[in-house]
Amino acid sequence: MENLPVPFVTADSEPFWEACNREQLLVQVCGLCGRPQWYPRGRCRYCYSYEMKWKEASGEGNVYSFSIVRRATDPAFAGMVPYVVALVELDEGIRMITHITDCELERLEIGARVVVHFREQGGFKLPVFRPK
């Protein structure tokens, strides 16, 4: 599984990736309206405030939607098939696109409880989820 893509780190996302490398999951929360958001950016997507703060997430959530990938569309992912790409809704209210690991693919269901863990990839630790 060499040559897998790695995150493009920006000034807005750098604190997130630094925390992931410490195996800590952070979410951005607006200091003005208090709403969480994903993906990291410089201003609130709801009220446009620049008062963004970081908060440690519980790392738990539910599978909101998922797809089992059986044929890689990019050769870099060919060694991983089959794998699950999922939209996970964290208990904090944001939804992240991620992978579900360590599960029987055919038994995974929408609404399943999952918990974060971190997978090494190209010098980064990526947040992925497994059934709780």
Question: Could you explain the architecture of this structure?
Answer:
- The chain has 132 residues and is mainly beta.
- The chain has one domain (14-131): OB fold (Dihydrolipoamide Acetyltransferase, E2P), CATH 2.40.50.
- Helix content is 6%, strand content 40%.
- The chain has one helix and eight strands, in the order αββββββββ.
- Strands 6-5-4-7-8 form a five-stranded antiparallel β-sheet, with helices on one face. It has a three-stranded antiparallel β-sheet with strand order 2-1-3, with helices on one face.
- A hairpin with a 2-residue loop joins strand 7 (113-121) and strand 8.
Give the helices and strands as they follow along the chain: HEEEEEEEE
Task: Classify the fold: give the CATH topology.
Answer: OB fold (Dihydrolipoamide Acetyltransferase, E2P)
Q: Work out the helix count.
A: 1
Any idea how many domains?
1
Return residue spans where pLDDT drops below 50 for at least 5 consecutive residues: none
Structural class: mainly beta
Measured between the Cα atoms of the first and last residue, the distance is 26 Å
**Order of strands, widest sheet:** 6-5-4-7-8
> Given the C-alpha coordinates, what overall shape results?
globular
Overall pLDDT score: 96
Per CATH, the architecture is Beta Barrel
The fraction of residues assigned to DSSP E strands is: 35-45%
Radius of gyration: 15 Å
**Biggest beta-sheet profile:** 5 strands, antiparallel
Can you identify the CATH class?
A: Mainly Beta
Estimate percent helicity.
under 10%
